[in-house]
Amino acid sequence: MLWAARKTHLRFIAGALPHAEAPVYVIGNPSADLDSMICALVYSYFANRSSRCHIPLINIPQVPSGPELCRLRPEFVKAFWISTNSGDPTSEPAGSLLQNHILTVADFAEHLKQRGIDCDPGPHRRYAADAVLVDWNALPIPSSDGQKGKGSLDGLPMVEFTVVGCIDHHVDEGFLGPDIKPLVIEKAGSCSSLVVNTLNTMGLWTPSDTEDRFPEEEPVARLALAPLLIDTVNMNAKDKVTVIDTEAWEFLRRILDSAPSAWDRDAYYRQIHETKSNSLDLLTVDEMLDRDYKQWTESPPSRAEKPLNIGFCSMVKPVSWIVQKAGNPQAFLDALCGFSARRELDIVVVMTAFSSPMRNGAFVRELLVCALQEGPAVDALKDLATRSASQLDLQEWTALDSADADDQAPAIRSVLDSDQFPWRRIWVQGDVTKSRKQVAPLVRQAVASPAEKL
């Protein structure tokens, strides 16, 4: 399916397809995490049973498919290889296989460049394409004519997408137009659960398939299970697991339990979790910040103030580990400021989540917020610290990685917890149930609807 979808894509941009045969691109969110990547693949696989070809488009604008994708998203490659029994994901052929089967935004842009289009050609010469969004519900670059449900991707401004469907578990951004199908925006631990259940509801992946299914459906079910298990901590995180997740899990389990090959859910979860936990080891600090990154723009209530760009970086390693990787606290702060400057951010937030040896392996979170400009950015974060301290259970930061890291805590605090320009704070986030899905709206609200100026 993936090889054929890539070929259809190349025919489409070459103008070799009639309008009736134009494909639908299935696009995950800009963080290109395990959930969004696998949702794009799984939805495309079954949606291809409808009247139109669906092509998964991995939302990574800087990296083409191939060996670099293996390095930057090893947990995806691990899940893909285990699910399809394709051999060793660390081997050289792995990069070649991805290169021939996976399409990224960087690949799309390169294909257009090869056709002589390497910049925004203007509104009258843009490619037009349809899209289904999974694990998000708003394109980052709205249409120039202001039409709802139309826009472009970072790294691909020469293509204007019309969103014809959406499956997501984040806050509704109000971007989508009317009469799109499917339209599912509901709370769930994993978007993959919504994708599985929606495909079932649409009749594209039905319970009867578990009795007389295509041979490829067992690996697809195993692939769909990967983000569900990771996002719900192997279905054990009571604060994350919803009825939707349970329904999807039961559906996938019936397929896998009836398969001829044996499978071990716990072993599968451990392999992918371990790969994800170690995924930052070979990355630079800049790559770590960019690896699971999302950005929003919010306008302060005063019309005199310009809109603020807010960036969120999520990581599975503690701040003390990242500081050590950078060399020292100031080097990490310099890297964070450089990363933010390149993206023209006014506020940058770093969220970490990991199991702490200092707390007997308990799951913990850290929250680092930085205002990069005086004025509304500083006011918003001070407002956040006041209004959300109780809601997030913000506590004085201490290193949670190891005793050695704790020795460096005073030096880290002196650099990362300061009233000096630019304003910044670091905390232990006591309420570990609040992920980026909950914290990002709080930061955005602090910009758009601040309390009385402090």
From TrEMBL:
Any one GO cellular component localisation term in the record: cytoplasm
Pfam family, one: DHHA2
Regions crossing the membrane: none
Gene Ontology terms for molecular function: exopolyphosphatase activity
Gene3D superfamilies in alphabetical order: DHHA2 domain (3.10.310.20), inorganic pyrophosphatase (n-terminal core) (3.90.1640.10)
Signal peptide interval: none
All residue ranges annotated as the DHHA2 domain in the record: 269-447
InterPro entries: DHH_sf (IPR038763), DHHA2 (IPR004097), DHHA2_dom_sf (IPR038222)
Protein known as: Exopolyphosphatase
